[in-house]
Write the structure tokens for this entry.
Amino acid sequence: MRWVHEFGPEIDKRIRPFLKPTNDSWRTDATYVKVKGQWKYLYRAVDSRGKIIDFMLSENRDMQAAKRFYTKALSSPHNQIPRVITLDKNPAYPPAIQELINEKFLPKETLIRQTKYLNNIVEQDHRFIKKITKPMLGFKTFLTAERTLKGIEAMHMIRKGQAVDNSFALSAVEWVNKIFGLAT
């Protein structure tokens, strides 16, 4: 696990410049991850085609955490400004988005939809994360959870084909070797 904690964030950092652009229809949801016996919140967003927009682990599920997540997602260079954001019924999302609109991070025309069934894409994408984290029986610290989840999400992006390479198609192992400058 020391390797995961060390290289998970590094892989995430190194693939960011190679990510393909996402579209402007966002689906946002939060799922639960157990850290030190308590549930923490993993905010995740995908576009309408299932490409990962961004993710963030948070101790709270409130307006400040939602605003931090959207600010992080909007600052990523591979993401487009959303035309529409589909949310679940969490009451913290609309005020956070409205604050970002007031601060001019988002255009006024951004449509906010709070519909449970349109979020099935992100709900299904949670399955992959849960499949890996469930056998771990939780994390010991928030920092190790954050680092491990960065690595899991980065590898998930590579496997989904979100990392672009113009020369030829690469497997996940070849991609990791390439971004670390290792010979294959």
